[in-house]
Amino acid sequence: MLTGDMQLAGEDSMSNLEEDREQIQSDQGPDEGQATEDSMSNPEEDREPIQSDQGPDEGQATGNLQVYKAHITKKLNKSVKVRSDDPEMRVLSEAFKPYQKTVQPHTVVLHGKPGVGKSALARSIILDWAQNKLCRDISYAFLFSSKDRKWTEKSSLAHLISREWPGSQAPVTEIMSKPERLLFVMDDFDSLESALLQEDMRLCKDWEDERPIYIVLYSLLKKALLPKSFILITTTDAGLQKLKSMLVSPLYILVEGLSLTMRKQVVLKNIIDDHRKNQVICSVIGNHWLAEQCQVPSVCLLVCEALKIQEELGERRTPVFQTLTSLYATLVFHQLTPREPSQSCLSQEERGTLMGLCRMAAEGVWSKKSVFYDDDLQTYGLKESEISALFRMNILQVDRSAKRCYVFFHVSLQDFCAALHYVLEGLGKSNQYFCLTKNLRSLTELKQTHFNTHLDGMKRFLFGLMNKDTMRTLEVLLGCSLSPDVKKVLQHWVSVLGQQANATNLTDVLDAFHYLFESQDEEFVCSSLTSFQGVGIVVNQRMDLAVSSYCLQHCQSLETLWVDVRGVLSMEMNIELCPVIHQPTHGKPHITEFWEDFCSVLGTHPKLKHLDLGSSILNEWAMKILCMKLRNPACKVQSVTFKNAEITSGLQYLWMTLISNQNLRHLHLGNILMKEDDIKLACIALRHPKCSLETLRLDSCALTADCYVMLSKLLLSTTSLKFLSLAGNKVTEESMRWLSDALSSSRCGLQKLILDSCDLTPVSCHILASALFSNRTLTHLCLSNNSLRTEEVRRLCQFMRLQECAVQQLILNQCNLTRDTYGFLALMLSHNGKLTHLGLTMNPVEDSGMKLLCDGIKEPTCHLQELDLVDCQLTEDCCADLASVIATKQHLKSLDLGSNDLGDRGVIALCKGLKESGTSLERLGLEACGLTSDCCEELSLALSCNSCLVSLNLLRNDFCTSGMLKLCSAFLHPSSNLWKIGLWKQQYYAEVRRQLEKVQLTKSHMLIDDDWYSFNEDDRNWWRN
According to the UniProt record, where is the region Disordered (predicted)? Predict the structure, then answer.
């Protein structure tokens, strides 16, 4: 991880931004928007053949090398500003020393944001090598840049080297004789990336073979060509992910750019007033995303210039958070404002120039193009002189070498102009050059590019431009009104995210919140978020917290909020991040205010019923503020979950909340270490007449024997508590006696008890079964993951057959049930009309046990509705019995047969039951059942004529394209009412994925989900909910 702090000096005016940038560590590469002089080769010279190389003598070789080094020094000396004694240079120098005893990387990747200093660092290595300052063990070093050539041209590595040589003849044989002493620098991998998508990617191994240049460079990367040579690559963070699969044992170095301290110095350089300094640092550095962008020297200077313009225009009141859009809008619109009093707005010609420039920028963003040439300007009806006159600033940097090229001052400025294109698009009819350019991709296409991170900047600016004040300023500048269509399209984008909440990635929601926050327009944000009833977000940065607070305040339909707050609430961490901000001695720290604002949502949304803070890291003051907001009389939250949360202290505030807020009905504290004092306070609160809590989950809370005593006494003294989960806690025989005494009492009103994974002994089970004979209220009993012997199951089934038994749901998953137990269970099913749910997942039921169970279910007195048989060692031989149950038992609604080796024959047998008119089955689980396309014909026919089935799990089966296309036809059938389908879409070819998308477009209510690998049991069985 490297930083590039340098001394800042120079004038602050926009005309001198280039001088300022040169004095800060900057990146001069093509992806960074800085053209380099003398970097373009003469195309005619490129075509000249390499002269015959007979192997020069040592003196001649030395002379050739010195000539080459002098050429490199002349070429790069003006553009490179990094000092050879900088620490990052020393790190890179060490990486390229051959013959080291330790394992060394032969490939080094410099990655970071565009403009952060990667190219300058890479070129510095070449320059310092040429000046004999670094890398003295390297014999020859060569720089390959995207600006110098087209990657699709044909060439050999020998030709590429010859192009870099300051003459027509390069000593190629001499150069290639020691490949372990060669260094190749590939600047701007991102521009090479698109070429690497070609079909023919056969590698070359001979440096004289003529192949497309991208193949030659790809062969170097893959170490097929000169495997002992050293390679240095520069790429953006976006390009890094695609580069990783191509490299052999690389070393990755993050180039960070300006440190936080340096960014503060730059931003505050011309501000004298202390109050104003604090305002600016809070609004700029306090905006995490904006502060991160200021790591790039060019962006930092643009931000400084915008702040200066705000000051000059009298905008003394700095907003709580500045956004990059508002700052760039201030800067660009100010530069565009006519200076002549007689001119109130841009002329038609000036508007045409602005629109042409923005369209060119947008085309470039889509195609990952940041370098433009004279013919590009001509295509868009642009002239360099008109652009300079319009902006009165060097928005385009010019390289006046052999083939003149242009780049934006920074790629973010290109993104801004690209976003502006879509706002101005409606005015394009008046520009004759627009009809000459190719059709630019629409906003609808932009919406569908989730994985193209190079478009993120343009998207963010596009949302930011929707601010009504910004739009008003732009309309005045243009002298005409702008169409509201863009705003409507963006609102629809976000609205669709809200409608598809269950299928939406958490990152997408947070990204949408950041985009909306960029607008700082409450009316626009509120209209966009009307469809959001459930929101899930992960808060990693304090800016995520501020952005989420802002957007959640405008989610007026919000019913469920799931948020994972990571270490952002640590006071020490935030002080360390912003030490320049004077933390108020009497007021509240900023992070406290952010958290208060976030928690205030609980009292402003009357529809909000469910709050999930699972896996969050909450300290005492965070818990205190949260509970204070939960006690707000306006708070209507009924369910609060802290599952897996890290709560160091502060639970005492939660117990007080249970008394103050009578709306609270459900509390989940799973996997939180509970002390005996916590249980004591909890029991006191639960006994209070104002406490209305009905559900208490204490899963894996490390409960002690004394805790069970207190909980048992609680069950005898509260009327509100109906659901108690003790899963994952060890329940000893003594503790079970206390619980059983409570359960056998008529004063106990508990309805649901979960004793999953409680390490119950046979004695404990016997004690529990005996207590159940006297219980008349328990409707849900879960004993999963406890070993139950035949006698305990017999005793339990004996109780279940009693007329007085109230149990409706019995969960016995993974209880090591033996073959003899299924006879008792079948007998119980045939005599129990109240049991609606039986879970036997991960027990060795086998086909023989399944036949017994089916006989019991078929009895008229059995009203079973849900049967879970996942991984029960079933085969196709039991499917005929199951099909008979499916066809005849109208009570049966859900059947989960996942992870059983049913095979195609088994499912074909089940389809006979699905086709019968008497079936009422709504949910069917066939995950990992060994199915192939051989069963798809029958399954498709069954689905096409079955209108009852609404949920089907087909994950982890081996369907080919033809089989999946048959299933897609069944999904689309008018008679089919399926709306939840378990399928891993990425498993199939594009034709199948397109059909699945068509299914979801045709039936917009349908959810096709692939999150089958989740470790959370509730998530894994999402389709049964």
Answer: 1-61
Q: Which residue has the tokens 């049964």?
A: 1024
Question: Quick check: helix, strand or coil at residue 233?
Answer: strand
Is residue 607 a contact partner of residue 634, using CB atoms and an 8 Å limit? no
**How far is the C-alpha of 864 from the C-alpha of 953, rounded, in Å?**
21
* Amino acid making up residue 472: R
Strand order across the beta sheet in which 107-112 lies: 2-3, 251-257, 107-112, 230-236, 182-187, 140-145
Mode of pairing for the β-strands spanning 405-408 and 372-373: antiparallel
Question: Is 897 in contact with 874 (CB distance < 8 Å)?
Answer: yes
Per-residue buried b or exposed e for 238-275, using 16+ beta carbons within 10 Å of the residue's own CB: bbbeebeebbeebbebbbbbbebebbbbbbbeebeeee
CA quadruple 754, 758, 761, 764: dihedral positive or negative?
negative
Task: Tell me which DSSP letter residue 760 carries.
Answer: -
The enclosing H or E element of 759 equals none
679 with 710: CB under 8 angstroms? Answer: yes
The pTM (predicted TM-score) of the whole model is 0.76
Structural contact between residues 93 and 135, judged by C-beta atoms closer than 8 angstroms = yes
Q: Which amino acid is at 32?
A: E
Whether 660 contacts 667, CB under 8 Å: no
List all residues 6 or more positions away from 697 whose beta carbon is below 8 Å from its beta carbon.
Answer: 643, 667, 668, 669, 670, 723, 725, 727, 754
Distances (CA, A) of 434 to 364, 366, 380, 437, 888: 15, 17, 7, 6, 68
Q: How do strand 610-612 and strand 617-618 relate by DSSP bridges?
A: unpaired
Quote the CA–CA distance of 61 and 747 in Å, as a whole number.
100
Place of tokens 């403009």: 115
Per-10-residue mean pLDDT, the chain, length 1025? 38 48 45 36 36 46 78 75 57 60 74 84 87 84 75 84 81 89 87 64 87 88 89 84 78 83 83 81 76 84 85 64 86 86 86 93 88 89 88 78 78 93 74 43 59 79 95 92 90 86 73 93 95 91 88 94 85 42 48 90 94 94 95 96 92 94 95 95 95 96 96 94 96 96 94 95 91 90 93 91 90 94 96 93 97 96 95 97 95 95 97 94 95 97 95 94 96 93 89 92 85 42 32
Q: Which residues of 492-531 are buried (b: 16+ CB within 10 A; e: fewer)?
A: ebbbebbeeeeebeeeebbbbbbbbbbbbbeebbbebbeb
Helical H runs in 782-902? Answer: 790-800, 821-831, 846-858, 879-888
Question: 230 has which bridge partners?
Answer: 183
